[in-house]
Amino acid sequence: MRKKIVIERAERLHQIPAGLFLGLRRKAQRAARRDVDVIDLSLGNPERPPSPEVVAEICKAAREGGHNRYLLGFGLEEFRRRVAQWFEARFEVSLNPELEVLPLHGVWEGLLNLPLAFVNPDEVVLLPDPCYPLYRAGAILAGARVETMPLLERNDFLPNFRQIPEKTAHLAKLLFLNYPNNPTTAVADLAFFREAVEFALAHNVVVVHDATYSQTTYDEYQAPSFLQARGAKRVGIELYSLSMDYNLAGWRIGFAVGNRQIIAGLAAVRGCAFAGPSPALQRAAGRALSLVPPCRESYTSRRDMVVQGFRDLGWKLHRPKATPFIWSLVPGRYTSLGFSRRLFRRTGVLVTPGSGFGEGGEGYVRISLTVPDDRLQLALERIKEQAFTWQRKRQAVRS
Fold it and tell me: Which residue in 68, 150, 230, 249 is a FRET match for 201, CA 20 to 30 A apart?
């Protein structure tokens, strides 16, 4: 009789939080099989196609030949030059396209590989709390020790560097920031970025600023770049994605810019196991950077619709200046998870519980605007109907 083999996962995988969005997706799929009309407001996944100019560019590149081969090193020179030109025009920051620009398979590649490049086992990575779950996963996979910086509403969801214990700051190797912020939708100004640079210089910390939503802004607001802060290029890099701004989420394309030593370290990790993004995709991304982000106007109207709709119901939420999300306090005395479950059972509307982004997200839910207008309006109508039902029941009990 053969002995049964016991297959055990590495301990590090048990330390990583369960896949938040995969779990929500499976929940939606199970409900759909029961003929529930699910309106999924949990995932930031743009529903509109890329601009015709971008699609034409990738098709043209694919037909030309030679773009199906591995692309090693720092990527397509043409794309790196286009990024440097775009960055200088947008932020008035000069970049060396040969040494300070690196195409990425989306921001995810940078978030996962930077701890591998710069953090030894048991060294400290500073993460905001709440934060996108991939920050924590990347740090844990590298064997790092995670220390969190609370993002509190009373501090405009900005970390207070002065409250980081001196011992923790001394041991830190990597600091993650993200503004405009996911999930809180908070924004940061140059004064805050200057504080981050001062902290990094004082404690010899590498700063990674995730600027995924820097172009998804509303009204007259324009998000600054971390690299605009004096001395920022000495201590850090910035990560950019074309996923949300240009509807390229599934194509997985982005780039890192900034300190050339950090860029080289990130490229070295890729060199161990990966090739760069497809040359055809890099050409299409370069074309996208010459266009105005097509999503901005639609997200603005959706933001206004949702903010007003929930405020009419008594929900407490801010009108965000950026990101395709709404970050709202949970109404009533529910937990984040308890409310999101109840909401889904009653309405078929799926939102993300704030606790999925860390302890600091408890008491909030995140609502995505990346669904068609009519579906978003229907979600509001369902929630409004159930809210009035609950209100009538409470009044009946009182009487």
Answer: 150
Distance (Å, rounded) from C-alpha 127 to C-alpha 125?
6
Domain final residue pick, 244, 270, 288: 288
Q: Does position 396 have pLDDT exceeding 80, yes or no?
A: no
User: Are residues 152 and 105 located together in one domain of the fold?
Assistant: yes
> What's the CATH code of the domain at 16?
3.90.1150.10
Q: Are residues 346 and 377 in the same domain?
A: yes
Tokens of 87: 């960055």
Q: Does the pLDDT value for residue 11 go beyond 90? A: no
Residue 147, domain extent: 52-288
CATH number for position 156: 3.40.640.10
Per-residue pLDDT tens over the stretch 94-114: 999 999 999 999 899 999 999
- Picking from 225, 253, 288, the residue at the C-terminal end of a domain is 288
Vertex 326: Cα angle to 333 and 163 (nearest 5): 75
Q: Report yes or no on 3 lying in a domain.
A: no
Do 72 and 209 share a domain, yes or no? Answer: yes
Structure tokens at 371: 């669904």
Same domain for 220 and 142 = yes
Task: Please tell me the least confidently modeled range out of 18-22, 133-137, 203-207.
Answer: 18-22
pLDDT at 393: 44
| Phi, psi at 133, each rounded to 5° | -60, -25
Residue 394, pLDDT score: 44
Q: What is the pTM of this model?
A: 0.91
